Amino acid sequence: MFQKGYRPRESSQHATMADFIKQTLGKNHQNLATLFDQMWRKRNRLVYEAANLVGEKETKQALALAHDFVELITTLINKETT
């Protein structure tokens, strides 16, 4: 996102990222924006509302998704810079 010159708005970082994913990565990755939005909402509830909202299984799934996302973005950046 930063490589392409996009900067998140101060109070809307998660929304900016979701919009960027939808517009930039195309239809094949639309579900990423939805999944990140769901995780962001749960994170907010966890931080501001209740403990034990996210279990171990869901935590592992979120970490795996984040890992896959980093690999995808790294691959896309490498393709653009070569």
Sheet having the most strands: none
Could you say which structural class the secondary elements and strand pairing correspond to?
A: mainly alpha
SSE order, one letter for each helix or strand? HHH
Dominant shape: globular
Amino- and carboxy-terminal Cα gap: 18 Å
Helix percentage range? 55-70%
Low-confidence stretches: none
Tell me the number of strands: 0
Structure description:
This protein has 82 residues and is mainly alpha-helical. It has one domain. It has helices at residues 13-24, 30-48, 56-81. The longest helix has 26 residues, at 56-81. It is globular and about 45 Å long.
Keywords summarizing the entry:
single chain; 82 residues; mainly alpha; 0% strand; globular
Produce a short descriptive summary.
This protein is an all-alpha fold and 82 residues long.
List the SSEs and their pairings.
Elements: H1 13-24, H2 30-48, H3 56-81
Helix pairs in contact: 1-2
